[in-house]
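Crash report, auto-generated. Payload:
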Amino acid sequence: MPGERENLDSDRPTKKAKVSAAINGASKDKDMDNPYLAHMYAPSIALSASQDLFAGLTRHQTTTAQAQQAEDGPLNPFTGTQLSRQYFDILRKRRDLPVHAQRDEFLRLYQENQILVFVGETGSGKTTQIPQFVLYDEKPFETGKKVACTQPRRVAAMSVAKRVADEMDVVLGEEVGYNIRFENNTSSKTLLQYMTDGMLLREAMNDPNLSRYSCIILDEAHERTLATDILMGLLKEVARRRPDLKIVVMSATLDAQKFQRYFGVKENDYNAPLLAVPGRTHPVEIFYTPEPERDYVEAALRTVLQIHGSEPEGDILLFLTGEEEIEEACKRLRAEGDEMQREYDTGPLKVYALYGTLPPNQQQRIFDPAPPPARSGGKPGRKVVVSTNIAETSLTIDGIVYVVDPGFSKQKVYNPRIRVESLLVSPISKASAQQRAGRAGRTRPGKCFRLYTEDAFKKELIDQTYPEILRSNLASTVLELKKLGIDDLVHFDFMDPPAPETMMRALEELNYLACLDDEGDLTTLGRMASEYPLDPALAVMLISSSEFQCASEILSITALLSVPQIFVRPPHKRKEADAAKAQFAHSDGDHLTMLNVYHAFKSQESGASQRWCLDNFLSFRSLTSADNVRNQLKVIMEKQEIDMKTTPFNDRNYYNNIRQALCAGFFMQVAKKMSTGKTYKTVKDNQDVLLHPSTVLGQESEWVLYNEFVLTTKNYIRTVTSVKPEWLMDIAPNYYDIDSFEKGEIKTALVRTAEKIARKAKLDKRTQK
Amino acid sequence: MTMPSTAPNSRVTKPSSSSSSSSRLPFTTDSEDEEDAFSNLAARHKPSAKVLPPVEPKSLSRPPTMVARPSVTNPTHKTVARNTEDDEDDDYMSMTVADPTAAETPLQRLKRQKVEASMRGHPLSKAELAEQEKLKRDLGLATSILNNTSSKGLKMMKAMGYSTGSALGKAVPTPTGVTDAKDTRRLEPIKPIVRESRMGIGHESDLKRKFGDLNPAGGEGSVTKRQELSPESYRNRLTQEAQQRRYEAQIFAAQSICEKLVAQDPPDSYNGTSKKSKEGTSEEGEGVNEPGSEKQAEAAPERDFFNEKPTFTQIKQINLIYRGLLYRRAVSDLKACLKKKEQDSLTSSKSSYVPNPSLPKYNATGEFSQDDKIALGTESEEVVTEQELEDQELEEFEKREAKDRLDEIVRYLRSQWRYCFWCKSRYATDEEMDRECPGLTEEDHD
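Recovered output after restart:
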């Protein structure tokens, strides 16, 4: 899935060093800037001044008093410079945080145990403070080993690192840094590193003992992302091999027992120790509707406006499911809010949207304070944030007093039986509902309006949200695990093991892609593919592209498929947007259309491209990001010495070569048109599918290859390109083995194709003679 | 057009070009015969497919009303059902030739070809396609791929020590003292559920509780619920459900006819004659009122039904034979009415936000004013109580087997109006009916 891949620059340290040295002709200094080599130059991390400031402290024996003394300055214990005024202002606030009261207890447990489970509700300060507590006790400049704190989201890793750098009065990127996909803001000085969980997992693939770290803090473990789940299983094993490695698992929910048991020892009936810090929250009053709602969006809007009209000052947070729904709701709320202000003299209502794909500067706007009264003495203004479940745990918006919770969120679900992966609007879990309610009590006692009955809450909501590992295609995870050296995947200690069929499908697909041999061992191709932070199908396509003389083009397409949608289609300008897209349309399909866009984008003068994107209904952000991804992937390809030579553009096989190369990765995602009409059928799973309306492809293509099979109210295949059955049978004879097909239209067509191929071969032979 | 090969499976060998090409790519090295995940499944199904007609979603997906609409008199729908296993296939010709057991008389072939031509001529409607898509999806989602023993993925897992039917991972350590700790490890993948409306949580189950599952022909929910079935029994059940739906559609058709005939020709004019055909009425027994006694109760209100909507109380007076039809119509009217009210209230209640600044749905006592109730659409002015909605007699009747009910309605039509549901015609005299009409059942009319 685009956007979920992390760390494109996780090459093996030594190799990367060679590459960069070769490219830049750089000296040792250059190497030292490379964070992957930091451990090789460990002693240089320490600054002579700072060592004195820590003089009285013994590693793993520090106390709160000692640490506080060091914190109180006047010199910065980490840099030896004078501490700023701002530092002391923040320090006062930090000492007020709930976690601070338990610093002693934390240190004692931390020093006595290898693994510790820490539960702190949102607002306890755990994400910013615990890593700093650890830092004073670990003294990383002594060991040369860093402290890592993982976050499920890029934005969180970035913003928390910024905050902590301020708290420690250091420059972001030096002592405190962050490392997220396409952005490594760390240096050889870095002692504390915030990073995404996926990033750490990638690092583990090349450094199985995570030897650069002395402590790993897994934050937001309750979110149970795929990477966090795998990391937990991995860290359990690493902890056994490395007794000096400390692990802190931090969770925001009270379901900590599961973590305790998981990190405990079964035989001894020993559970990992737990430290719980109460959050600083105010009571939240919960209201249920007396009757189930017929339309949750309507009900939500009604409730928001009623709160605005009748409740005292305080901002509102409304949870909806996706971009479209949120934008629609915002539009209507703005209109209604203005009308209310005009007609009934309510305070002004400011409405903000919040969702993942929103540009960061717009995301920042949600932190703007509520608007002032329209006139002096008038009613106070109010802010409404309409958000996806981003605002549930990861983002904290101060000033929220009212929460409106319709009880839904979009969740990814993958089903291995028909190989469909979709974002579906699903009821949330009880845990999620509690989390949402909690957002109302951040500043003062609040209210949460649940748009369902209490009975429905009890009976229809599941207890915990399904962890991502149960809802994902595991092909890339299995490849990662294999690369991590885990051979017995069946008995790998998953916290929540995936369904056997999901694992089976992943292994099978990797076998068809020739990443795993029949014994389940990594092949050379598999080893190469695992170096890319991509789905195996994309990685294999990329690696084999040189055989079709179109590596450069496939590289562009891969990058374009790895970023959010490049076409913009604003609701009020659909026609114009479609017309703009039509300029780039390639009759053979969407992949080639995207490639046309990219080529046009690159031919713009650098200053004009943003304007050009706007005029052509393209996302500048996505295209720039694709460009970035492309560069990152190119480095890996070059390292693997993949031939980048391409077919000349005016060669008549230019596009055919690209289409064939697409088949090399996506031969399992093919559908054939049925004789009965518009429907297509997926080649092996017997599913009727329709071309997504966004496609540029006409209805006349017999065989199409698709990037995604999604479920909405209909079965859709999205991003499609027409292909030929001859190519498929040629490129993937194992998958297109005719005997393995069920009797039907597809088999018949394949039989005919095989006959055609045979005839042509015979003919060729004859002409050769 | 290429000639259809007589035996596609046997004649086709691997194209020679494929083996030569395998050297081109790094990942086509293992050339052992690869079996697809579904091929084995398919093989397992083959024998059963011969015994019972394979479930061809296409045939199911035809709305039952289409096949049994009373005005349509041709009996082809039966043939359609019999032959649909072919119409998915381009080369049905080769298949029938290849299978010597399927000896066809020229007449049968003519008939079949006609049907097939007409199938091709009438592309499926959007709704039919959607239903077919959904059925295939549900079938796919209900079929475990672990049955596919030839899958290399499964073989690899077996090599790692996996045994079919068990979960992955390590068993969760059980804390001492707790004996009933559940093993929460998943055996089945999570099923994707598509929500087609913006109904709030609990609304659907609330509707079911209020109105019951009044639409057995719809069968929407029933297909999605049970998923742990073997493919065979799943197919069997689909066949049965299709049959049920056909019966329900025929019942609907028969009831409609009944309603019309009552309007044209109230049953009292046949009072005398209906008694004659003893075997027709005797079995009606407890369920159906004697035609004579129902005369007064029925005739008066029924005539008006075509002009105005009956109340639920009135409906309870109607002959059980076709009361269900009117009841369902009334319920759907009621639902539509409620829905409309709510939509009205959504737009109209806007003005009530501020003048009356209280949250109607969340006030302290949990009670709300009548105004609010109406505005929120939870209560309509025409109040229909649950008691009125309840109709025990009808429930009893509807509980009976669909076939049984259909037979009864057919007999009733015959006895009251000498109308044969299968001939789709009315006879002037009993003698004519005896002579012209082949019998009581659908098979007799084949």
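Post-recovery validation: Chain A has a mean pLDDT of 87.
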